[in-house]
Amino acid sequence: MRKITSSGNTRALLIKFAVKIALSTVFSIFLLSSVCSFIVLKLDIDLNVLQYLGTGVCIASAFLISFISTTEFKNNFLVLAMISVLPLLVYTVVNFCVNKTDTVFIIVKLAGVILCALAVSLIRSGKKSR
Question: For the chain, percent helix, then strand, then coil, each to nearest 5?
């Protein structure tokens, strides 16, 4: 695990961090949404359940994104985890504005994403202390 320093490889490390965030955000949302869609299709579940599944996908994606993007660092986990879920937060707010879902779901999604980033930072810092 590397620490961010003022040396020349900092730029490469930050670019790699940004690419990890972008790729993990896109792939986690795509894969988890595909799995949920397959389950809904095969089990013929009512479409009213999709809001709940979307909330679950958003929260699970936040956990995966934070966990994947902070693997190469050894400090500042809370800041890095919060930065890593920013694209997901933007995606969630834009999705809310476009689809006009209930306000309760947007509040739960935003709180869940932030809590998942906090949980990942606590998990990572707990592993560091051992």
Answer: 80, 0, 15
